[in-house]
Amino acid sequence: MKKKSTSISMIGFVSITIAMVMDVYEYPIFATSGLQLVFFLIVGGLLWFIPTALCSAEMATIDGWEEGGIFTWVKNTLGERFGFAAVFFQWFQVTIGFITMLYFILSAISYVFHFPQLNSNPWLKFIGIVIIYWILTFSQFGGTKNTEKFGKIGFFVGILIPAIILFCLFILYILKGNPLQFHLSKASFFPDFTKPNTLVVFISFILSYMGIEASASYVNELENPKKEYPIAMLIVVLAAILLNTIGGLSVAAVIPASKISLSGGILQALESLFATISPNLNILVNSVALMIAIGVIGEVSGWIVGPARGLYAAAQQGLLPPIFRKVNKHDVPVYLVLVQGVVVTFWAALLTFGGGGNNLSFLIAIALTVVVYLMAYLLFYIGYFVLIFKHQDLPRGYHVFGGTIGKTIIASLGLFTSIASLIISFVPPASVTAGETSIYLIILIVSALLSLALPFIIYHFNDKSIHKTIKAPKHMSSDETNKFIDLAFRGEHHIDPDKDDYL
Question: Which phi and psi (to 5°) does residue 396 adopt?
């Protein structure tokens, strides 16, 4: 086994993992389900979160597989072609997901500065997205050191502090005896799965855990992975369920489900919660909204170079044209970042002008992000099955419990859930009207097929002879190759950005 050059405490590992899978602005999505959100979070964790985390850890601790993430794992089990496809899907879904993040930033800015046209006028919205994204893109050419610092500021200012404020206000709201806007009963805890939309909502909770596999590359830095990793994952699952439950219920407690704005629900909840203390405190809502916007901007900044580095690992092995193996003096793959910017601009135009309206374009962006990411997860799980049945002799620092039978059961849960999620992702959410259904499905299906074909087309036409002229690739640290995987846009199938004045 490769000797560790660094080590990380279990608490540090837990902190990194939680930061990858949680975001404050997902709380309104959870809140629409009322008390059922607790059920969804628990079952989603058991069916998807834990299997993905465990299987990722085993693959990440195989000797020689520690670097490169999903590209290395899938390449070594299914072949180079599929390894490239997996990392391409991981990168491509981020280019789509950026749009949902930028939509959220514009919503918050329009709220703070009382400028609703910024979120409702397609041209203003597109221009706003392009300006914000390209400013952030050019700011990353100076290297990742400043980006990481700004990312930390964004996390604490835009995520942690707003969450603490919300939790404290929620507790005060309860202590003052205010009425709850959701029912506390056994019947309200268990969802009705006979309703098609319930499945869509359920999958959105499962997919809210997307990105958990990214932290697996840190497993090798634990002092005792076999002992500490399962404990760490248990802590992460419990913490994610607890914090998401408190956050979701904080919103559900003060805003009726039918009136929750899924991209502005945090602001709605804050207004109501501050009002219970004093009407004069509503001015603080603008401050918190601006903090959340800063947090999302920080996240976008951190992910601009990260996804390109994932493809850079493949480019180093000759799977992309030579120009994409070039970096600037700060080790930034500039040409990959620029191509990424062009792709993001394309998605911004397509989804803002061609999505059939503000709400529909947002929903399509969310669904397409999920579909593309799930393609990578399908390859990931298939690769894991190849590993446990054909490469049992490979040395590794961590094994999923239960031997081959236990590994098969765990991986089957994750694979089945991923397949079901992919199928259900094409079911139009309830917020899509009957007249919009055909537009929604056509754009989503065509975009999904194009996304599926692209990596295989690129790989097919790539000059394979270039492999012979390439030197051994420069290995990037796990922090460089994996830190971008977070989907702040994870599984938000049913966001309605047209609802009320919070957008």
Answer: -150, 155
- pLDDT, tens digit, 9 for 90 and up, residues 7-58: 677 777 776 677 666 666 678 878 888 888 888 888 888 888 889 888 888 8
Element housing 457 (H / E): helix 437-461
DSSP 245-268: HHHHHHHHHHS-GGG--TTTHHHH
Report the amino acid identity of residue 210. Answer: M
8 A C-beta contact, residue 334 and residue 326: yes
Those residues with Cβ within 8 angstroms of residue 445's Cβ, 6 or more apart along the chain or in another chain: 426
The two structure tokens encoding residue 157: 């200012």
Instruction: Please name which of 4, 105, 18 lies closest in space to residue 61, comparing C-alpha atoms.
Output: 4
Spatial separation of the C-alpha atoms in residues 35 and 252, rounded to whole Å? 8
Tokens of 125: 């919205």
Amino acid identity, position 99? I
pTM: 0.76
User: Is the CATH number of domain 10-482 3.30.70.2860?
Assistant: no
Q: How far is CA 335 from the centre of its chain?
A: 24
Of 448, 69, 91, 30, the C-alpha closest to 243 is 30
**Do 233 and 410 meet the contact criterion of CB atoms below 8 Å apart?**
no
Give the pair of three-digit tokens for residue 421: 């999620």
Tokens standing for 184? 């506390």
Q: Encoding tokens for residue 467?
A: 């492999």
Q: Are 86 and 77 in contact (CB under 8 A)?
A: no
- What is the widest separation between alpha-carbon atoms in the chain? 72
Within its chain, how far is the Cα of 249 from the centroid?
Answer: 21
With H, G, I as helix, E, B as strand and everything else as coil, classify residue 222.
strand
